[in-house]
Design a protein that fits this description.
alpha/beta; UDP-n-acetylglucosamine1-carboxyvinyl-transferase, Chain; 2 domains; 4-stranded mixed beta sheet; 24 strands
């Protein structure tokens, strides 16, 4: 087991380059199942979750080669329809193979997912979507078992916006006969990127990035060469780091238009933000001002940035409130921030953060990907040494975060526990 060690109190200065979007790469990797042949996917981050998805695709019969940030995925010989518990339990995104397997092979047996220590995220919307497309779906001994002799286009309305269900239905609909309309679809850039990938393969997808998607399926799809969009959550995490630590940080190879909600809150906190076409520069002097944040589906403030903005608020010059309307119990980082000296009162899904002048280093434990990032950011502004354990979480969502922060001037490294 490894841990990340931080010696706090150092300004950040310089440029940091953002990698490819994990939450776009995972469904796009699954979508290669739809078209037999050799796909090339570029700008793929080196993350534990990407490795898990690669292993799953290989178990299904795909052949995968990696060269740096380029994946070559050959799905010609995919013949298995089972995504086993041993892999799916480690990563919820494994459920993305449900739609492609059902569309291509007419059957899928996918374990109910795991992969996070917080928040009930039911799979009922995935199941409903497959049933609306004409599949027979049952739950058997912890597995989703879906079968179809041919999917048919349908009108599907999600009562709750779901990124995962939007992606799964979009992929299945790409091979369904006729037209599928998804109402209340997820608008996230990751789903827009998936739509771009499906369109490159030959599917017809209209309305990408909006609440209403129209997919016309039934065509033979072809393998393609495609590049993943930049990871907006990684970019926003480094923006918050710059706003917390002082100095000046330029985040490069990002898409500022994907980050407007976070940029707005950073400006409200008193940070100076300058956005270019593919970069954002953040600087700050003095303590942040308090902020009021409520998470919301895209283009609102992302739940994946809730922990990081909470970390920034711990040293604000007043009282901030952070409400997570997406996941009501995604606050496992709060007790750990308290170990660093934060003053946070938690009431259900609302955190009231009374800013303190400074934090103090201490041993802390990560509980999920974004909580890990929040603890690292807090450790960078805390006096003394902070040890963050259970960092296998951070490796699921950030490629070499300690190296990138070190390049900005942070005193941060890995050690064996």
């Amino acid at each position: 087991m490894e841990k990340i060690v931080i010696e706090g109190g150092h300004e950040l200065r310089g440029d940091v380059v953002v990698g490819g979007a994990k939450n776009a790469a995972l469904p796009i990797m699954a979508a290669t199942l739809l078209a037999p042949g050799a796909h090339t996917i570029r700008n793929v981050p080196k993350l534990r979750d990407v490795l898990t998805m690669s292993r799953l695709l290989e178990m299904l019969g795909a052949r995968i080669e990696r060269n740096g940030h380029v994946l070559k995925i050959d799905t010609t010989n995919v013949d298995s329809t089972e995504a086993p518990y041993e892999l799916v339990k480690t990563m919820r995104a494994s459920i993305y193979v449900l739609g492609p397997l059902l569309g291509r092979l007419g059957r899928a047996r996918v374990s109910l997912p795991g992969g996070c220590a917080w928040g009930p995220r039911p799979v009922n919307l995935h199941i409903k979507g497959m049933q609306d497309l004409g599949a027979r779906v049952e739950l058997e001994h912890g597995y989703i078992v879906a079968e179809s002799t041919g999917l048919k286009g349908a009108k599907i309305h999600f009562d709750v916006t779901s990124v995962g269900a939007t992606g799964n239905v979009m992929m299945a609909a790409a091979l369904a006969e006729g037209e599928t309309v998804i109402e209340n679809a997820a608008c996230e850039p990751d789903m827009e990127d998936l739509a771009g990938f499906l369109s490159a393969m030959g599917a017809t997808v209209e309305g990408a990035g909006s609440k209403r998607l129209v997919i016309r399926g039934g065509r033979d799809l072809k393998p393609v060469d495609y590049s993943i969009i930049p990871d907006r959550i990684e970019a926003e995490t480094f923006m918050v780091a710059g706003a917390m630590a002082g100095g000046e940080v330029t985040v490069r190879d990002c898409r500022p238009g994907h980050c407007t909600a976070v940029i707005s809150k950073l400006e409200q906190s008193g940070a100076q933000v300058r956005a270019g076409e593919r970069h954002v520069t953040v600087s700050r002097s003095g303590r942040p001002k308090p902020v009021k944040v409520a998470t919301d589906p895209y283009p609102g403030f992302p739940t994946d940035m809730q922990a990081q903005i909470t970390a920034m608020a711990t040293v604000a010059s007043g009282t901030s409130t952070v409400t997570d309307t997406i996941y009501l119990d995604r606050f496992t980082h709060v007790p750990e921030l308290g170990r660093l000296g934060a003053d946070i009162e938690l009431d259900g899904n609302v955190a009231v953060i009374r800013g303190v002048e400074s934090l103090s280093g201490a041993p802390v434990m990560a509980t999920d990907i974004r909580a890990s990032a929040a603890l690292i950011l807090a450790g960078m502004i805390a006096s003394g040494r902070t040890d963050v354990s259970r960092i296998y979480h951070i490796d699921r969502g950030y490629e070499g975060i300690e190296k990138k922060l070190s390049g900005l001037g942070a005193r941060i490294w890995r050690e064996r526990e």
